[in-house]
Amino acid sequence: MAKFGVVVFPGSNGDQDLLLAIQDVIGEEAEYVSHRAADLSEYDVMLLPGGFSYGDYLRCGAIAKSSPVMEAVKQFASEGKPVFGTCNGFQILTETGLLPGVLLNNTSLKFICGMQPLKVQNNQTMFTNEYEQDEIITLPIAHGEGNYYCDEETLKELKENNQIIFTYDQTNPNGSVEDIAGITNKEGNVIGLMPHPERAMEDLLGSSDGKKLFQSIVNHLRKVTA
Ligand SMILES: NC(=O)CC[C@H](N)C(=O)O
């Protein structure tokens, strides 16, 4: 069984959604991991939740970047293991430098939430192998700083390496460059996604399109350990 770690920072609020998504819907093992943790060697996957870590002071994710667990997450990522960050987790990954670019205030300067159509731009990753290429899916969004920005050179690299994994479809809710909703690092084992797949696990709650993302990680792990 794959073992998922869900990092809990002071101010995280999506940690329980992630834990239950993995345990109850995907049916794999999941545990909370303290922001003070230094050793992540018992885990196969690390998940960084949404929320308001350290009250979003300075900038979203700017303080979480310096928490002890992020040194361990860097080590974990350097071993090629899957790291997934949603929303505040994505912000923490850019602040830490594990992903390129930054997340700025939404152009509306308002906190936005709702259901958002997305397009799967690359299904050849350990996070998207269950999706069809160009599949249109619906995931919830809930953020104040989701406006992805990077310089021209970085954008060129993201495109050349197929690191743009999800884009907003139909509408761009926050002003992100090239409608970017989710990217990976160059190696493809760290992903940041502004929308919340862990809140789209059951049709009863409006969408189950998030399931395939976590199932993709499990598929990948089965393949590498087979
Ligand atoms: N849902 C979230 O993770 C929100 C992240 C961050 N607090 C923001 O408003 O952008």
From TrEMBL:
Which CDD domains has this protein been placed in? GATase1_FGAR_AT
- What subcellular locations does the record give? Cytoplasm
**Quaternary structure?**
Part of the FGAM synthase complex composed of 1 PurL, 1 PurQ and 2 PurS subunits.
GO terms (molecular function) for this protein are:
phosphoribosylformylglycinamidine synthase activity
Q: Which UniProt keywords apply?
A: ATP-binding, Cytoplasm, Glutamine amidotransferase, Hydrolase, Ligase, Nucleotide-binding, Purine biosynthesis
> Active-site positions, per UniProt?
C87 (nucleophile), H196, E198
Give the EC number(s) listed in the UniProt record: 6.3.5.3, 3.5.1.2
One Pfam family name is GATase_5
Pathway listed for it is: Purine metabolism; IMP biosynthesis via de novo pathway; 5-amino-1-(5-phospho-D-ribosyl)imidazole from N(2)-formyl-N(1)-(5-phospho-D-ribosyl)glycinamide: step 1/2
Its protein name is Phosphoribosylformylglycinamidine synthase subunit PurQ
Q: Does the keyword Secreted apply?
A: no
Query: InterPro entries in the record, alphabetically?
Result: Class_I_gatase-like (IPR029062), PRibForGlyAmidine_synth_PurQ (IPR010075)
Q: Which reaction does it catalyse?
A: N(2)-formyl-N(1)-(5-phospho-beta-D-ribosyl)glycinamide + L-glutamine + ATP + H2O = 2-formamido-N(1)-(5-O-phospho-beta-D-ribosyl)acetamidine + L-glutamate + ADP + phosphate + H(+); L-glutamine + H2O = L-glutamate + NH4(+)
NCBIfam families named among the record's database cross-references? FGAM_synth_I (TIGR01737), PRK03619.1 (NF002957)
- Explain the purpose of this protein: Part of the phosphoribosylformylglycinamidine synthase complex involved in the purines biosynthetic pathway. Catalyzes the ATP-dependent conversion of formylglycinamide ribonucleotide (FGAR) and glutamine to yield formylglycinamidine ribonucleotide (FGAM) and glutamate. The FGAM synthase complex is composed of three subunits. PurQ produces an ammonia molecule by converting glutamine to glutamate. PurL transfers the ammonia molecule to FGAR to form FGAM in an ATP-dependent manner.
